[in-house]
Write a structure and sequence with these properties.
The protein has one domain. It has twelve helices and two strands; from the N terminus they run αααααββααααααα. Strand 1 and strand 2 form a beta hairpin. The radius of gyration is 19 Å and the shape is globular.
Length: about 290
Protein backbone atom coordinates (compact mmCIF):
# COMPACT_ATOMS: atom_id res chain seq x y z
CA UNK A 1 0.00 0.00 0.00
CA UNK A 2 2.81 2.44 0.88
CA UNK A 3 4.46 1.87 -2.51
CA UNK A 4 1.23 2.78 -4.28
CA UNK A 5 0.95 5.97 -2.21
CA UNK A 6 4.54 6.90 -3.06
CA UNK A 7 3.94 6.22 -6.75
CA UNK A 8 0.82 8.39 -6.62
CA UNK A 9 2.85 11.20 -5.05
CA UNK A 10 5.56 10.80 -7.69
CA UNK A 11 3.05 11.00 -10.52
CA UNK A 12 1.30 13.95 -8.90
CA UNK A 13 4.58 15.77 -8.30
CA UNK A 14 5.72 16.02 -11.90
CA UNK A 15 2.16 16.68 -13.08
CA UNK A 16 1.89 19.58 -10.66
CA UNK A 17 5.07 21.19 -11.97
CA UNK A 18 3.94 21.22 -15.58
CA UNK A 19 0.31 22.01 -14.77
CA UNK A 20 1.32 24.86 -12.44
CA UNK A 21 3.35 26.49 -15.22
CA UNK A 22 0.51 26.09 -17.70
CA UNK A 23 -2.06 27.37 -15.21
CA UNK A 24 0.09 30.32 -14.16
CA UNK A 25 0.48 31.48 -17.76
CA UNK A 26 -3.24 31.16 -18.42
CA UNK A 27 -4.26 32.77 -15.13
CA UNK A 28 -2.15 35.89 -15.65
CA UNK A 29 -1.96 36.22 -19.42
CA UNK A 30 -5.08 34.40 -20.60
CA UNK A 31 -2.98 32.35 -23.03
CA UNK A 32 -3.74 28.67 -23.62
CA UNK A 33 -0.16 27.67 -24.35
CA UNK A 34 -0.10 24.46 -26.39
CA UNK A 35 3.70 24.67 -26.60
CA UNK A 36 3.97 23.88 -22.90
CA UNK A 37 4.26 20.15 -23.57
CA UNK A 38 7.17 20.89 -25.92
CA UNK A 39 8.90 22.80 -23.11
CA UNK A 40 8.56 19.65 -20.99
CA UNK A 41 10.12 17.63 -23.80
CA UNK A 42 12.90 20.18 -24.28
CA UNK A 43 13.62 20.00 -20.56
CA UNK A 44 14.07 16.23 -20.82
CA UNK A 45 16.34 16.31 -23.89
CA UNK A 46 18.35 19.30 -22.67
CA UNK A 47 18.90 17.63 -19.29
CA UNK A 48 20.42 14.58 -21.00
CA UNK A 49 22.82 16.83 -22.91
CA UNK A 50 23.78 18.63 -19.69
CA UNK A 51 24.32 15.30 -17.89
CA UNK A 52 26.86 14.40 -20.57
CA UNK A 53 28.58 17.79 -20.52
CA UNK A 54 28.80 18.18 -16.72
CA UNK A 55 29.32 14.57 -15.70
CA UNK A 56 25.85 14.13 -14.26
CA UNK A 57 25.91 10.40 -14.99
CA UNK A 58 28.73 9.94 -12.44
CA UNK A 59 27.97 12.59 -9.79
CA UNK A 60 24.56 13.35 -8.32
CA UNK A 61 25.42 16.99 -7.41
CA UNK A 62 26.38 17.49 -11.05
CA UNK A 63 23.13 15.80 -12.06
CA UNK A 64 21.15 18.30 -9.96
CA UNK A 65 23.14 21.17 -11.46
CA UNK A 66 22.41 19.80 -14.94
CA UNK A 67 18.68 19.69 -14.17
CA UNK A 68 18.78 23.28 -12.90
CA UNK A 69 20.66 24.56 -15.96
CA UNK A 70 18.37 22.65 -18.33
CA UNK A 71 15.36 24.28 -16.67
CA UNK A 72 16.85 27.74 -17.13
CA UNK A 73 17.66 27.02 -20.78
CA UNK A 74 14.06 25.98 -21.40
CA UNK A 75 12.94 29.14 -19.61
CA UNK A 76 14.97 31.20 -22.08
CA UNK A 77 13.41 29.27 -24.98
CA UNK A 78 9.96 29.98 -23.58
CA UNK A 79 10.85 33.65 -23.18
CA UNK A 80 11.95 33.78 -26.82
CA UNK A 81 8.64 32.25 -27.90
CA UNK A 82 6.76 34.88 -25.92
CA UNK A 83 8.80 37.84 -27.16
CA UNK A 84 8.95 36.90 -30.85
CA UNK A 85 5.56 35.25 -31.37
CA UNK A 86 3.01 35.10 -28.57
CA UNK A 87 3.23 38.76 -27.53
CA UNK A 88 1.61 39.73 -30.86
CA UNK A 89 -1.67 37.93 -30.17
CA UNK A 90 -2.57 39.09 -26.66
CA UNK A 91 -5.49 41.14 -27.94
CA UNK A 92 -6.63 38.55 -30.46
CA UNK A 93 -9.33 35.92 -30.03
CA UNK A 94 -8.55 32.54 -28.50
CA UNK A 95 -8.57 30.98 -31.96
CA UNK A 96 -5.44 32.88 -32.91
CA UNK A 97 -3.69 31.76 -29.71
CA UNK A 98 -4.51 28.13 -30.38
CA UNK A 99 -3.44 28.28 -34.03
CA UNK A 100 -0.16 30.04 -33.27
CA UNK A 101 0.87 27.85 -30.34
CA UNK A 102 -0.23 24.73 -32.22
CA UNK A 103 1.97 25.74 -35.15
CA UNK A 104 4.90 26.37 -32.82
CA UNK A 105 4.49 22.82 -31.50
CA UNK A 106 5.42 21.41 -34.94
CA UNK A 107 8.41 23.75 -35.20
CA UNK A 108 9.73 22.77 -31.77
CA UNK A 109 9.21 19.07 -32.47
CA UNK A 110 11.21 19.37 -35.69
CA UNK A 111 13.98 21.20 -33.84
CA UNK A 112 14.16 18.31 -31.37
CA UNK A 113 14.36 15.82 -34.24
CA UNK A 114 17.17 17.76 -35.89
CA UNK A 115 19.15 18.15 -32.67
CA UNK A 116 18.66 14.79 -30.93
CA UNK A 117 17.42 12.45 -33.65
CA UNK A 118 14.54 10.00 -33.72
CA UNK A 119 15.76 7.41 -31.22
CA UNK A 120 14.69 7.53 -27.55
CA UNK A 121 17.36 8.75 -25.14
CA UNK A 122 17.76 7.59 -21.54
CA UNK A 123 19.43 8.82 -18.37
CA UNK A 124 19.08 5.74 -16.18
CA UNK A 125 22.58 6.12 -14.66
CA UNK A 126 21.32 9.25 -12.84
CA UNK A 127 18.35 7.24 -11.57
CA UNK A 128 20.69 4.58 -10.19
CA UNK A 129 23.24 6.90 -8.54
CA UNK A 130 21.45 7.04 -5.18
CA UNK A 131 20.31 3.43 -5.18
CA UNK A 132 17.19 2.22 -3.39
CA UNK A 133 15.90 1.84 0.15
CA UNK A 134 13.94 -1.04 1.63
CA UNK A 135 10.31 -0.13 2.39
CA UNK A 136 8.26 -3.00 3.76
CA UNK A 137 10.33 -5.55 1.95
CA UNK A 138 10.21 -3.66 -1.35
CA UNK A 139 13.13 -1.63 -2.69
CA UNK A 140 12.09 1.89 -3.70
CA UNK A 141 14.43 4.24 -5.65
CA UNK A 142 15.81 7.17 -3.68
CA UNK A 143 15.63 9.35 -6.79
CA UNK A 144 11.82 9.14 -6.66
CA UNK A 145 11.95 10.76 -3.22
CA UNK A 146 14.13 13.53 -4.67
CA UNK A 147 11.49 14.26 -7.31
CA UNK A 148 8.67 14.24 -4.76
CA UNK A 149 10.47 16.44 -2.23
CA UNK A 150 11.79 18.79 -4.91
CA UNK A 151 8.34 19.25 -6.44
CA UNK A 152 6.72 20.02 -3.12
CA UNK A 153 9.47 22.49 -2.30
CA UNK A 154 8.76 24.22 -5.59
CA UNK A 155 5.05 24.29 -4.69
CA UNK A 156 5.92 25.92 -1.35
CA UNK A 157 8.19 28.50 -3.00
CA UNK A 158 5.53 29.26 -5.59
CA UNK A 159 2.95 29.83 -2.84
CA UNK A 160 5.37 32.10 -0.98
CA UNK A 161 6.13 34.07 -4.16
CA UNK A 162 2.50 34.61 -5.08
CA UNK A 163 1.04 35.33 -1.64
CA UNK A 164 3.87 36.69 0.50
CA UNK A 165 5.86 38.98 -1.79
CA UNK A 166 5.25 42.25 -3.58
CA UNK A 167 5.93 40.57 -6.91
CA UNK A 168 3.22 38.04 -6.14
CA UNK A 169 0.73 40.79 -5.34
CA UNK A 170 1.49 42.45 -8.67
CA UNK A 171 1.05 39.16 -10.53
CA UNK A 172 -2.25 38.43 -8.79
CA UNK A 173 -3.49 41.97 -9.37
CA UNK A 174 -2.69 41.67 -13.07
CA UNK A 175 -4.51 38.35 -13.31
CA UNK A 176 -7.61 39.83 -11.65
CA UNK A 177 -7.82 43.13 -13.55
CA UNK A 178 -5.16 43.97 -16.11
CA UNK A 179 -6.58 47.43 -16.91
CA UNK A 180 -6.78 48.49 -13.28
CA UNK A 181 -3.27 47.18 -12.59
CA UNK A 182 -1.95 49.16 -15.54
CA UNK A 183 -3.77 52.27 -14.34
CA UNK A 184 -2.00 52.18 -10.97
CA UNK A 185 1.42 51.93 -12.60
CA UNK A 186 2.05 48.20 -13.03
CA UNK A 187 4.23 47.42 -16.06
CA UNK A 188 2.05 44.76 -17.67
CA UNK A 189 4.70 43.85 -20.23
CA UNK A 190 7.24 43.02 -17.52
CA UNK A 191 4.65 40.98 -15.63
CA UNK A 192 3.89 38.97 -18.76
CA UNK A 193 7.58 38.40 -19.46
CA UNK A 194 8.23 37.24 -15.88
CA UNK A 195 5.16 35.01 -15.82
CA UNK A 196 5.94 33.28 -19.10
CA UNK A 197 9.59 32.84 -18.11
CA UNK A 198 8.71 31.28 -14.77
CA UNK A 199 5.98 29.10 -16.26
CA UNK A 200 8.41 27.86 -18.92
CA UNK A 201 11.03 27.08 -16.28
CA UNK A 202 8.46 24.96 -14.41
CA UNK A 203 7.68 23.07 -17.61
CA UNK A 204 11.37 22.47 -18.31
CA UNK A 205 12.02 21.46 -14.70
CA UNK A 206 9.31 18.81 -14.80
CA UNK A 207 10.82 17.27 -17.93
CA UNK A 208 14.37 17.44 -16.58
CA UNK A 209 13.36 15.78 -13.32
CA UNK A 210 11.44 12.97 -15.01
CA UNK A 211 13.93 12.06 -17.75
CA UNK A 212 16.08 9.80 -15.50
CA UNK A 213 12.91 7.82 -14.75
CA UNK A 214 11.09 7.77 -18.08
CA UNK A 215 13.67 8.80 -20.69
CA UNK A 216 13.15 11.23 -23.56
CA UNK A 217 11.17 10.23 -26.61
CA UNK A 218 9.50 12.08 -29.47
CA UNK A 219 5.79 12.53 -28.83
CA UNK A 220 6.10 12.77 -25.06
CA UNK A 221 5.00 16.41 -25.29
CA UNK A 222 1.51 15.46 -26.49
CA UNK A 223 0.95 12.89 -23.75
CA UNK A 224 2.05 15.18 -20.93
CA UNK A 225 0.10 18.16 -22.30
CA UNK A 226 -3.12 16.13 -22.25
CA UNK A 227 -2.41 15.05 -18.68
CA UNK A 228 -1.66 18.64 -17.67
CA UNK A 229 -4.94 19.83 -19.16
CA UNK A 230 -6.82 17.14 -17.27
CA UNK A 231 -5.19 18.39 -14.05
CA UNK A 232 -6.03 22.05 -14.61
CA UNK A 233 -9.55 21.28 -15.84
CA UNK A 234 -10.16 19.41 -12.58
CA UNK A 235 -8.51 22.08 -10.43
CA UNK A 236 -9.75 25.09 -12.38
CA UNK A 237 -8.05 27.12 -15.12
CA UNK A 238 -5.66 29.69 -13.72
CA UNK A 239 -5.60 28.32 -10.16
CA UNK A 240 -2.28 27.15 -8.70
CA UNK A 241 -3.90 25.47 -5.70
CA UNK A 242 -6.33 23.89 -8.16
CA UNK A 243 -3.35 22.55 -10.12
CA UNK A 244 -1.93 21.08 -6.90
CA UNK A 245 -5.18 19.41 -5.86
CA UNK A 246 -5.88 18.29 -9.42
CA UNK A 247 -2.42 16.70 -9.64
CA UNK A 248 -3.01 14.85 -6.36
CA UNK A 249 -6.39 13.57 -7.56
CA UNK A 250 -5.01 12.41 -10.91
CA UNK A 251 -1.97 10.86 -9.21
CA UNK A 252 -4.20 8.97 -6.78
CA UNK A 253 -6.52 7.75 -9.54
CA UNK A 254 -3.51 6.70 -11.63
CA UNK A 255 -2.08 4.63 -8.78
CA UNK A 256 -5.46 3.13 -7.82
CA UNK A 257 -6.20 2.31 -11.43
CA UNK A 258 -2.89 0.50 -11.93
CA UNK A 259 -3.35 -1.44 -8.67
CA UNK A 260 -7.02 -2.41 -9.01
CA UNK A 261 -8.26 -1.68 -12.53
CA UNK A 262 -5.27 -1.72 -14.91
CA UNK A 263 -7.48 -2.22 -17.97
CA UNK A 264 -9.38 1.04 -17.40
CA UNK A 265 -6.72 3.13 -15.64
CA UNK A 266 -6.91 6.01 -18.15
CA UNK A 267 -10.70 5.83 -18.35
CA UNK A 268 -10.88 6.15 -14.56
CA UNK A 269 -8.97 9.45 -14.64
CA UNK A 270 -11.23 10.89 -17.35
CA UNK A 271 -14.31 9.64 -15.49
CA UNK A 272 -13.28 11.57 -12.39
CA UNK A 273 -12.71 14.65 -14.56
CA UNK A 274 -16.16 14.28 -16.12
CA UNK A 275 -17.84 13.91 -12.72
CA UNK A 276 -16.13 17.04 -11.37
CA UNK A 277 -17.07 19.02 -14.48
CA UNK A 278 -20.71 17.96 -14.19
CA UNK A 279 -20.82 19.02 -10.53
CA UNK A 280 -18.64 22.13 -10.91
CA UNK A 281 -18.01 23.11 -14.57
CA UNK A 282 -15.36 25.72 -13.69
CA UNK A 283 -13.27 23.16 -11.79
CA UNK A 284 -12.64 22.90 -8.07
CA UNK A 285 -10.99 26.31 -7.66
CA UNK A 286 -11.77 27.97 -10.99
CA UNK A 287 -13.80 31.13 -11.35
CA UNK A 288 -17.35 30.74 -12.58
CA UNK A 289 -17.65 31.66 -16.23
CA UNK A 290 -20.11 34.39 -17.15
CA UNK A 291 -22.44 33.76 -20.09
Amino acid sequence: MLIYILNALLYASYLFLIAAGLSLIFGVMGIINLTHGCLFMLGAYTAITMFKLLGGFESFPMALLSIFIASLIVGVVGLALERFFICHIYEREDTYQLLLTYGLVFILEDIVRLKWGFQPLYAHPVYKLLGSINIGGVFYPVYNFIVIIGSWLVALMLWFLLFKTKVGKIIRATSMDREMASAIGVNIRNVYISTFLFGSILGGLSGALMVPIAGAVLGMDVDVLIEAFVVIVIGGLGSIKGALLGAIIVGAMHSIGIALFPEIELALIYLIMAIILVIRPQGLFGKKLMR
